[in-house]
Amino acid sequence: MKDDNKLSKNDEQYVIRGGRSLEGEVVIAGAKNAALGILAAAVMTDDKVTIENVPYVSDTRTLLKAIENIGATVEYKDRHTVVICGKGIREGQPVDDEYIRRIRASYYLIGALLGKHRYANVALPGGCDIGSRPIDLHIKGFEKLGAKTEIVPGGSIIAEAEELHGAHIYLDTVSVGATINIMMAASLSPGKTTIENAAKEPHIVDVANFLNTMGANIKGAGTDVIRVRGVEKLHGAEYSIIPDQIEAGTFMAMTVATRGNVLIKNVIPKHLEAISSKLVEMGAHVIEYDDSVRVMADGALRSTQIKTLPYPGFPTDMQAQMATILALSEGTSIVTESIFENRFRYVAELARMGAQIRVEGNTAIITGVKKYGGAMLRASDLRAGAALVIAALSAEGISTIEDIQYIKRGYEDFDEKIRGLGGKMLIANGEKGVQRAKLELASSTD
């Protein structure tokens, strides 16, 4: 597999000239959160697995690199199709390198390798700093299935078992990661496993469907009770990943913020219902088709209230993007974050642009302003970074955004897609590059 070091360039910045309505069509990539679980699950068979619609983002490339490093073969058939064969994985091989510690989804390899080899040694994950995301529910599930677990010095987790067995597992809180991890390990654990209070997100269903395509026996994915009957082994398969609801939602929010008109293609409209309904409440227009949505906004936006909840509630991964629009809406809005405790770090950056937002605990009280002004900004995490791009596109003047490596974790060809809609956005390297980009954008004609 090609080694792509571009994901590590921390000196890259976005330079954005705002004030232009986005118009046209954009095609949404495969779901990053589904892809990470599916790519990990692909190593659970010794046969070849072909996965289509894989988003070409730094998180998926990092995970594929880690899989390759432990002995699997990874071949890109094209930019979005990858063939994985886990036959060469060395039993007992630790999963630990400079790449794998960067992403949260490294923990999916615990469930995959534990199920297949009865042993996993995986570096503890990194990813975005949006608060505490402990893996105690994952550990509880593995231990119920018969594994012993240990956190070892240096920051890795070992899970091993002489034999695994089915079990009844109740998750104290709804956890997407724990649901997927337990589901994978249980697929190759003899007997029947029941996961209660399971997460219901679309990517849970997608991972379960993928495992079933490989020969697993999983029922109830998408409900709060998942039943898994363990099978002896899994086999090769071909599978296509669902579209990314958060990328789609981000472009929906971006269209509304810039008072644009965009057809967003390759989506599942039902997955977007929580986002669509809030945008309509705010005064935008959303038209649903079979596999696309058209979003339009041309007038003043209204305030509303948002509370993040597990699916089918409003997604935490869209909270920052929506707050960015609400800060441009008439009246006072309230946004309550009930999933992660550290997801308002973008507020200080929006304040640089003129936003009026007051944070009290897990609630943001937003008083709408007429417009943003361009500013120098820094992305603190993936979704906060996307929110800053939305703000910059709707602002007067030119903005720069540093630490865009966070944004590249989850958005494929973000700048290219935005330019395709008429947005004025460039990537620049270093101070001289930023100055050149600013001059280019300032001199460009609309």
Structural class: alpha+beta
Total helix count?
14
Rg, Å, rounded? 22 Å
Major β-sheet strand ordering: 21-22-1-23
What percent of residues adopt helix (DSSP H or I)? 25-40%
Q: Please tell me what the overall shape is.
A: globular
Biggest sheet statistics: 4 strands, mixed
Low-confidence runs of at least 5 consecutive residues: 1-8, 127-133
Beta-strand content estimate? 15-25%
How would you describe the overall organization of this protein?
The chain has 446 residues and is an alpha+beta fold. The chain is 31% helix and 24% strand. The strands form 6 sheets. A 4-stranded mixed sheet has the order 21-22-1-23, sandwiched between helices. A 4-stranded mixed sheet has the order 2-14-16-15. Strand 19 and strand 20 form a beta hairpin. The longest helix has 14 residues. The N terminus is likely disordered.
Draw up the topology in text.
Layout: E1 12-17, E2 23-27, H1 32-41, E3 48-52, H2 58-69, E4 73-78, E5 81-85, H3 108-117, E6 119-123, H4 136-144, E7 148-152, E8 156-160, E9 168-170, H5 176-187, E10 192-196, H6 202-213, E11 217-219, E12 225-229, E13 237-240, H7 245-257, E14 261-265, H8 273-281, E15 285-288, E16 292-296, E17 305-307, H9 319-326, E18 332-336, H10 347-352, E19 356-360, E20 363-367, E21 376-378, H11 382-394, E22 398-402, H12 405-408, H13 414-420, E23 424-429, H14 430-443
Parallel strand pairs: 2-14, 3-13, 9-10, 17-18, 21-22
Antiparallel strand pairs: 1-22, 1-23, 3-5, 4-5, 6-8, 7-8, 10-12, 11-12, 14-16, 15-16, 18-20, 19-20
Helix pairs in contact: 1-2, 1-3, 1-6, 3-5, 4-5, 5-6, 7-9, 7-11, 9-11
